[in-house]
Please model this.
Amino acid sequence: KTWNANGGEFNGNLDITYIQDTDWKILYVYNSKPLSEIVRDINKYSLNLMARNTMLTILAKDSDLLVLESSVNKYVNSWFKKNNLPHDGLFIENGAGLSRDSVLNSEQLLLLMEKLYHDPLMPEMLSSFPISGVDGTLKRRMNYSSFKKSAHFKTGSMKNVNAIAGFLLDKNKEMKIFIFIMNDLAAKDSHRLQEALIAQAFK
Model:
């Protein structure tokens, strides 16, 4: 629709194919930033295009699947199964998570985050989450909350959907996992509710 509204035209058929490596000649090699820095940029500022491309790169490097977004769900489900995480009903359409068809319940997310917290690479991953009231997508939120600087949360939103999840260091210096997911017409107005619940958990 956007293409047509701006004067674009499309005629004919769209054919998507996957071309196997042949006798291609490498013209240039570019070494990217370390993965930890890339993930930090993605999570701190919710860079969806980078997230999708990173997922496709993982497919290319860590699986025999075709490097297509249609392969993402199979890869993610296999990863959950390999790590003994529940995956019934799990469906991930793309690496960014922006989809009306993707399905991930709070229990699956909770167990994933528990696994993350006990992983050797936890510090790198945790540091990629925005800090409450400090940076990233939370820079202008939670500035006057009791838990400012005490939480690392990842936010997510679409029309009629709002979510926040992460790790909260409460006033007793105990780490807690906090997850809030709302699918409702009022989701866009749920920030105050989220922060009230987080404040309660902080106590």
